[in-house]
Amino acid sequence: MSLHAIVNTYLLHGRYSEGEQRLRQYLAKYPNDHPAQNMLRQLTGDPKAMLGAASRSYVVQSGDSYSTLAAHTLGDSNQFLVLARYNGSSNPSALRAGDTIRLPAGAARSASSSGVTSSRSNADSGATLVVTPTTPPDAAPSSESPATKAQRLQTESNALLKQGQNDQAMARLDEALTLDPHLKPAGNQTLRSQLLASYHERAVVLYRDQKLDQAIALWDHVLAIDPGYERAVIYRARAVELQHRLNQI
């Protein structure tokens, strides 16, 4: 089962015990998959220790989800699970407009770096926080080309890595390489190698599930980034051969 399937089948719907079991099985096969490692930390860690005990109340608005709120307040939508557990949610997908939840008191600081502001940033811990998307003053121009944006994201990734924010650094580099697979490497290459390994491992899962079109597309992406990635070359050839045989049945 792919990581995407684990998240959407189990974790998003509050099936935490089954989700943890599936995550551990997945990581036993793919121990270098950083998004999976991050998800397991969110699932098993102490939410208050991770986000802080001090919090502010927030009234859920139409269109909100734990993912969008995590993006606004924590700077990463993939942190939805720890935010849901922070609120004692047994089903992250069940968030409804009008619900009152708690957001970490440090959210205003995270939000300011993510282009989000609070209507009462200096309010006490009992104040209601209204999160409103804004355009940060240093936002990239809308005319920014994909190649230029990819270079900027790679620079941000390197900076985050130096700060020890590995998960966010990985996410930035992932976005950069999605925009421009031919992006010239810059800075520490360890993260790129880990990301390529993660892509390959996900493609192998898809291959074993016989989702061959998706697996081949992912290996194509790997090879666009690194044409010499031998494991991707070998497995892609196997997938194409299997697809050909299945089409003849």
Structure notes:
The chain has 249 residues and is mainly alpha-helical. The chain folds into four domains: 1-44, no CATH class; 51-139, Membrane-bound Lytic Murein Transglycosylase D, Chain A (Roll), CATH 3.10.350; 140-180; 189-249, no CATH class. Helices cover 57% and strands 6% of the residues. The chain has twelve helices and four strands; from the N terminus they run H-H-H-H-E-H-H-E-H-E-E-H-H-H-H-H. The strands form two sheets. It has a two-stranded antiparallel ribbon with strand order 1-2. Helix 11 (212-225) packs antiparallel against helix 12 (230-248). Pfam families: LysM (PF01476). InterPro entries: LysM, LysM_dom_sf, TPR-like_helical_dom_sf, TPR_rpt. Residues 108-153 are annotated as: Disordered. TPR repeats lie at residues 150-183. Keywords: TPR repeat.
CATH arch. level architecture of the largest domain = Roll
Please give the largest β-sheet: 2 strands, antiparallel
Q: Percent of residues in helical segments?
A: 55-70%
How large is the share of residues in beta strands? 5-15%
Count of DSSP E strands? 4
- Report the average pLDDT across residues: 80
In short, what is this structure?
The chain is about 55% helix and about 5% strand.
Set down the secondary structure blueprint:
Blueprint: H1 3-9, H2 16-29, H3 34-44, H4 47-51, E1 55-59, H5 66-74, H6 80-86, E2 100-104, H7 107-112, E3 116-118, E4 131-133, H8 146-162, H9 166-179, H10 190-208, H11 212-225, H12 230-248
Antiparallel strand pairs: 1-2, 3-4
